[in-house]
Design brief:
The chain has 402 residues and is an all-beta fold. Helix content is 0%, strand content 55%. The chain has a 5-stranded antiparallel beta sheet with strand order 1-3-33-32-31, with no helix packed on it. Strands 4, 5, 6, 7 and 8 form a 5-stranded antiparallel beta sheet that branches. A hairpin with a 2-residue loop joins strand 13 and strand 14. It is globular and about 55 Å long. The N terminus is likely disordered.
């Protein structure tokens, strides 16, 4: 069952943003959630055939379960369990994901590799088309180092999947007490789980910001927060073109110099040659969410469009409606409270009226809200926090609302 709630929202104007100033009614259809108690870390995935939601649930004091459900005709179907574990690294910013292609399902969890706080491996779970059981705990990387591996992005590619992740194998301390930097790597996963064409994309990346990727007409592109020798951490892109990976290239030089990871990665969306990238920056003590468009598969980008500033805390997502129009979602803080917002943005910089999806806590417990385009509607998922429990909630919003 589901129900529709219509709410009036006042439109907030942010300096530098071109937005309409009228009020309007925003219909939000809250979809009855398939999750159980103590659920969190939602992840949305959608293609032409499937719309999936994955999440984790706490079972007792030490056991965690990864589950997923499919959205059919606007309603979530019965949830399915993938696997349980008591030795997982469960983190508000580095969470399991799921993807589908031709009936094959791919998901992952982070499994502890030693007693160290940040030593864990990416373990893949694969359910082949027509199979009733998951193959679980399949290796993605085989370096064997008790270091951090995570922040995975997985997308359908060729007959299987393209996957990229942050890999800390070089951060192992050597005999002289020296440590290398976090790297970003990519590989392909066959329908049977075989890892192919693994490569290092950048030998120095920000340690704990989410990765994002897209499959352009030329091949995969990976977007991530880079890390210079002087601790500038701006957005970079690496592209697969003509049979090899390009060198990392800065999308836009915010010049955010910060001596620790901001835990705030980018999001990308693609439509043929058009690539849109949204991200958060705190450069010059001016927090802001920005969006850029590329018309050539990520080779060149427009000047950034300012989506939100002053109170922005990031945790962005983006979808493309057409070649000139995107919807961007993000979080803004107001003391201990925060708001999940979304707005339509055109390539020429004009914007619609920001829509408030939900009030959230500004703390880490709220995690990273998700957004996917489903036909003529936009699907959202987020973690709702109360004094008693955490619960994943979902909602549908017509595109014409924005």
């Amino acid at each position: 069952m589901r129900y529709v709630v219509c709410m009036f929202f006042s439109i907030v104007l942010f300096p530098g943003c071109t937005q309409k100033t009228k009020k309007k009614v925003d219909p939000i259809t809250f979809v009855a959630s398939p999750v159980g108690a103590n659920s969190s870390l939602p992840f949305l995935y959608a293609n032409e055939d499937k719309t999936l939601l994955s999440w984790v649930e706490k079972v007792g004091d030490s056991l965690t379960e990864l589950k997923y459900a499919e959205l059919v005709n606007g309603e979530w179907q019965k949830p399915q369990a993938i696997l349980q574990g008591s030795d997982w690294f469960v983190n508000w910013a580095d969470f399991p994901a799921i993807a589908e292609q031709n009936g094959n399902l791919l998901s992952h969890v982070l499994k502890k590799s030693s007693a160290g706080t940040y030593s864990y491996d990416v373990k893949l779970n694969l359910r082949q088309a027509g199979a009733s059981q998951w193959q679980t705990n399949l290796p993605l990387h085989t370096d064997g180092t008790p270091t951090e591996h995570g922040f995975v992005t997985a997308l359908p590619y060729k007959e299987g999947f393209f996957i990229t992740w942050l890999d800390g194998r070089n951060t192992m301390e050597d005999e002289h007490g020296n440590r290398g930097a976090m790297t970003i790597r990519a590989a392909e996963v066959s329908p049977s789980g075989e890892i192919q064409n693994e490569a290092e994309l950048d030998n120095r990346a920000c340690d704990c910001c989410q990765t994002t990727a897209a499959i352009t007409t030329n091949g995969p592109v990976v977007v991530y927060r880079d890390r210079s020798d002087t601790e500038v951490r701006d957005m970079s892109i690496v592209r697969w073109e003509n049979g090899s990976w390009s060198a990392p290239k800065t999308i836009y030089a915010d010049g955010w110099k910060i001596n620790g990871c901001p835990v705030n990665g980018p999001k990308a969306a693609v439509l043929e040659h058009i690539l849109a990238v949204a991200w958060f920056s705190g450069a010059n003590e001016r927090p802001k969410v920005q969006l850029v468009f590329s018309e050539d598969d990520g080779v060149n980008f427009s000047q950034p469009i300012l989506v939100s500033e002053t109170k922005a805390i990031g945790r962005v997502d983006v979808v493309l409606l057409d070649k000139e129009t995107a919807i961007v979602s993000w979080m803004e803080a107001d003391g201990e409270k925060a708001y999940l917002k979304a707005v339509k943005v055109h390539a020429d910089g004009t914007q619609g009226s920001p829509l408030v999806l939900s009030e959230l806590f500004s703390s880490r417990q709220s995690g990273f809200p998700q957004m996917e385009l489903i036909g003529d509607q936009v699907l959202f998922a987020w973690t709702d926090i109360s004094k008693k429990l955490r619960e994943v909630k979902t909602a549908l919003v017509p595109v014409e609302t924005f």
